[in-house]
Write a structure and sequence with these properties.
34% helix; Glutamine Phosphoribosylpyrophosphate, subunit 1, domain 1; eight-stranded antiparallel beta sheet; 607 residues; alpha/beta; 3 domains; Rossmann fold
């Protein structure tokens, strides 16, 4: 959540900053602002609402400065007002600060250091601007270092000072920051997306690091003024890959991308002859893998539903007891982990604050900790001792689609790798590998149900409540389908393991409470059919996701989305797609902001 952009170079800064903010819209925000040094003066404009509101205010401006900072804010401290929007300034108006994160001790800092200072906002961030003012004695970097030594909390910061008009300072603790290196120019941002159009050479700041960027180059320090040497990394994501590609929304493009990007997740990782998968990033010897007695999958939101599908695969294929833990709960219940525990931290952004904190706690307690992330160079990728990139490419819609299915694919491959080491025969492994190779084509077939999904959305758009039901491997599919519907259409939706309905939830079934049930042909088909009959008996409208060729499903309802058959453990890769399409079309028909749903952010970097 929130987005930072900074620029210093030879171009006019304002167009670069605005384009960068637009690249960060997917992160979620409620206000935006920009500050540029032009001819020795700081020019600042802020606005509540979308970036377009800010650009409307800038239409008459003739700023020519080549250094500036910009920000999109997602309110934490203080309401959604122009006064609370970033960048924030000090009493003199000479310092500008854009900040992601939360300053936990801002009241203490205000009372201790800022007597006599006049504050203009209700934010924790403004305290930082004034704290830097207190310490400033002609060197901005040293003032920032000294100020940050007093701070508790998290921050990604970019700062400029009128008296040092060719210098930007960036600092990071718990909130990601990237420095892009161009030709006689530098870019600073919350992630790589704002700089893809200009450079592929980046340096990821680590916690406790401060970057001083000037016309003469880039130098990194720690909070104790010690220089740090870091090498630039090459990012192979392209600006074109992040474009909407003619689709009405990024979310629709990303749903349709899935048959392509899952090939990237599978490529080079399946070993047909041995019926196994090999994910080299695991960084474990066979002896260490044999020592694993328990697996914990830590994730939040959509990633947690991918993890639950992974749990079924790990336990069935490898026989290793596997748990799914919410990142936000894991470290607050004194979790029991040891050197025989393998923990996977799963996150699209690789910056999810709760998941990152949980991974650190598991590592502190001696577990093997590995990451499963999408964003190269992200904090989870760098702080874990190995893991896997899911290779979904840039995912700009807030609601995750292609990252979810690629996470499931990676977890399936890890389960297969451990299964072959522990108990699976070559023949069983080979059947699973062959089935995985068929998944892109089956996904493409599932996408052909888009017209049916839209027709059902048209039929059911007026309902205010939904149940999603599934059993076994399709229970996490139901959870994810329900999650998608509520987050982008704002319709109240719940998911249940179908066998649990009779233990209370059946009381809600009625003519105005539709049910979408996963009833594909697998070992629980008959059980699931019985649960669906219970729904019909209570007259709830019924939508089924069924396997192609299942004519019996037509006895239950006319509202059916058919999907191709695949191996049971692989069903989430196919069965989730019609649910994504249904949620998408429902949201479009209801006039929702599909790519940026209210109150939500793509990268949740605060607890």
């Amino acid at each position: 959540m929130c987005g930072i952009v900074g620029y210093i170079g030879t171009k006019e800064a304002l167009p670069v900053l605005i384009k960068g903010l637009k690249r960060l819209e997917y992160r979620g925000y409620d206000s935006a602002g920009v500050a540029v040094i032009d001819q020795g003066k700081i020019q600042r404009r802020r606005a509540v609402g979308k970036i377009d509101q800010l650009t409307d205010r800038l239409k008459t401006e003739q700023w020519g400065g080549a250094i500036g900072i910009a920000h999109t804010r997602w309110a934490t401290h203080g309401g959604v007002t122009e006064e609370n929007a970033h960048p924030h300034t000090d009493c003199s108006g000479e310092i500008m600060v854009a900040h992601n994160g939360i300053i936990e001790n801002y009241r203490e800092l205000r009372d201790k250091f800022l007597g006599g200072h006049t504050l203009q906002s209700k934010t924790d961030t403004e305290i930082l601007a004034h704290l830097i003012e207190v310490h400033y004695q002609g060197d901005l970097r040293l003032a920032v270092e000294q100020a940050l030594r007093h701070v508790r909390g998290t921050y990604g910061l970019v700062i400029l000072h009128k008296k040092e008009p060719r210098k930007l300072i960036a600092a990071r603790l718990g909130s990601p920051l990237v420095v892009g290196i161009g030709d006689k120019e530098y870019y600073i941002a919350s992630d790589t997306s704002p700089m893809l159009a200009y450079t592929s050479q980046v340096i990821f700041l680590d916690d406790g690091e401060i970057a001083e960027v000037t016309d003469h180059g880039l130098q990194i320090y720690d909070l104790h003024d010690q220089q740090i040497t870091k090498e630039a990394e090459h990012i192979d994501w392209s600006e074109r890959a992040a474009e909407q590609g003619g689709y009405q929304h990024f979310m629709l493009k990303e749903i349709i991308d899935q048959p392509v990007v899952i090939k990237d997740a599978l490529r080079g990782r399946l070993v047909d002859s041995e019926g196994t998968a090999h994910l080299g990033g695991l960084n474990m010897t066979e002896e260490q893998m044999h020592s694993v007695q328990r697996i914990i999958l830590i994730a939040c939101g959509t990633a947690s539903y991918a993890a639950l599908a992974g749990k079924y695969a790990f336990e069935r294929l490898s026989g290793i007891p596997t748990e799914v833990d919410m990142g936000s709960e894991f470290r607050y219940r004194d979790p029991i982990v040891d050197r025989h525990t393998l923990v996977f931290a799963i996150s699209q952004s690789g910056e999810t604050a709760d998941t990152l904190a949980a991974a650190r706690e598991a590592k502190r307690k001696g577990a093997f900790v590995r990451g499963i992330v999408n964003v190269v160079g992200s904090t989870i990728a760098r702080e874990t001792d190995g893991g896997t990139y899911i290779h979904a490419g840039p995912e700009l819609a807030v609601a995750s689609t292609k990252a979810y299915t690629n996470m499931v694919a990676v977890l399936l491959m890890y389960a297969l790798q451990f299964g072959r080491l522990k108990r699976l025969t070559v023949a069983t492994g080979q059947r699973l590998v062959a089935a995985l190779r068929e998944i892109p084509d089956k996904m493409q077939t599932a996408l052909q149900q888009g017209t049916k999904a839209r027709a059902l959305a048209e039929k059911y758009r007026q309902y205010k409540n939904f149940f999603f039901l599934g059993r076994g491997i399709n229970y996490p599919v139901a959870l994810e389908g329900s999650h998608k519907l509520k987050e982008i259409s704002y319709i109240h939706s719940e998911a249940y393991a179908a066998g649990e309905m009779k233990h209370g939830a059946n009381a809600l079934l009625a003519l105005d409470f539709p049910v979408l049930a996963m009833m594909t042909k697998n070992q629980l088909y008959e059980k699931m059919r019985s649960n669906v009959e219970e729904v019909r008996a209570r007259q709830s409208p019924l939508i089924l996701v069924a396997t192609e060729g299942d004519t019996e499903a037509r006895e239950l309802t006319e509202d059916i989305i058919y999907v191709p058959a695949t191996m049971e453990l692989l069903e989430p890769l196919v069965n989730t797609i019609p649910l994504q399409l249904f949620a998408y079309h429902m949201a479009v028909l209801l006039g929702r902001d599909v790519d940026r749903p209210r109150n939500l952010a793509k990268s949740v970097t605060v607890e």
